[in-house]
Amino acid sequence: VTEILIITTTTTIIIAIITTLMEITTVIETIIEEITTTVIIMVIEIIKTVITIEMMLKTLSETLINKFIMEIKVIIIIIITTIITAITIMEITTIIIIEIITIEIITMVIMKEVLKNTGIETKIIIIKSPTKKQ
Questions:
Q1: In a domain, 130, yes or no
Q2: End-to-end Cα distance, the chain
Q3: Directed axis angle between helix 66-133 and helix 2-61, to 10°?
Q4: CB hemisphere CA count around 44 (13 angstroms)
Q5: Is residue 124 in some structural domain?
Q6: Which of 5, 28, 93, 133 is exposed most, by the fewest CB atoms within 10 A?
Q7: Nearest-CA neighbor of 77 among 57, 59, 60, 97?
Q8: In this predicted model, what pLDDT tens digit does every residue of 57-67 receive, in sequence order?
């Protein structure tokens, strides 16, 4: 009886560990997907704004001095790129924090189950072993 219970406990722990690893892998995949998507969107946004500014300044350049426009253009592009990048970094950070919290919660729940199951089976072993010896 004791051997069967120990095997059951070990199996439960192994299953819990595998489940935890699978959950963590899934979460990591999600993080990578989210970050990739966000970065692609960021790049597209930057390109779009740069093109828009180019178009606007082309129409203006006919009336204003080119050098002055070039300086303004560079400054505006830098500002917009910085803002978009900052927002993207914040989004990525938020995603990572949320996913880490999810991993911690999943791990806690699984470990609680393992400990609960192990605890119950350990009690059974302690109770049944003396009666087996007698």
A1: no
A2: 14
A3: 170
A4: 6
A5: no
A6: 133
A7: 57
A8: 777 666 666 66
Give pTM, 2 decimals.
0.40
Q: Examine residue 24 and state whether it is found in any structural domain, yes or no.
A: yes
pLDDT in tens, 76-95: 888 888 888 888 888 888 87
Domain with 102, as residue range(s), is 2-108
Q: What is the DSSP string of the chain?
A: -HHHHHHHHHHHHHHHHHHHHHHHHHHHHHHHHHHHHHHHHHHHHHHHHHHHHHHHHHHHHTTS-HHHHHHHHHHHHHHHHHHHHHHHHHHHHHHHHHHHHHHHHHHHHHHHHHHHHHHHHHHHHHHHHHHHH-
CA quadruple 18, 24, 29, 31: dihedral, nearest 10: 180
- The residue type at 53: I
Q: Between 130 and 25, where is the model more confident?
A: 25
Q: Report the mean per-residue pLDDT for the chain.
A: 75
| Cα 49 from chain centroid (whole Å) | 28
**Tally of structural domains, the chain:** 1
